[in-house]
Amino acid sequence: xxxxxxxxxxxxxxxxxxxxxxxxxxxxxxxxxxxxxxxxxxxxxxxxxxxxxxxxxxxxxxxxxxxxxxxxxxxxxxxxxxxxxxxxxxxxxxxxxxxxxxxxxxxxxxxxxxxxxxxxxxxxxxxxxxxxxxxxxxxxxxxxxxxxxxxxxxxxxxxxxxxxxxxxxxxxxxxxxxxxxxxxxxxxxxxxxxxxxxxxxxxxxxxxxxxxxxxxxxxxxxxxxxxxxxxxxxxxxxxxxxxxxxxxxxxxxxxxxxxxxxxxxxxxxxxx
Length: 272
Hints:
Helices cover 59% and strands 0% of the residues. It is built from twelve helices and no strands. Helix 3 (105-121) packs antiparallel against helix 4 (127-138) and helix 8 runs antiparallel to helix 9 (202-209).
């Protein structure tokens, strides 16, 4: 509705003489906003919404097949259902070796989100072929940044290879992923803990995620608690795990939030 209003109002002002100056600017902003919303739809809902508009004549590339990745230094990227929301433009990494190509960070994010959405939509897709697609996209990322190993870790993790993912998650965090992109840094710790648990090392997962309980709150809070609860359960600490799960659930209940939160605390206060 907001996009519709912003588009219609300046057009209606054309007869008054103000429209010609404001319409192009407003429509460009509206289109950009709509494009940004397409990415979370693909990442979180698995719904791919194609662009309904074309670039103005003489601006941007003509409609056609997507441009192949620029041939810089090959590097990977990825994360299936774990692929998170698009980072703000200021946090997105650019590839200086591709400055001559018509590649933008928005375009890269769109193509990557579409690759992950396609993977989610097709459970029969060959994992190796999918990783090759992600690797080609990752080749457009700077080789010394933290994002490339993180994306490679996600791809291996989501195709059933936590053993290959763990060292890549650690590399991404060691390169400063949490400082450069706190949201993806937190995702990396959650996914690393889950992979460690799957490899029979749940205590390492507990050590990794326990500090996250006191981290600044965001939409990953419940994922932190759920993954930590699984790690605790694998260690035989089921009451602590259940307490975390109840605590996370209580915040979403239409009623009984206070009582459920109290029950969650009592599970650990009462001891075994």
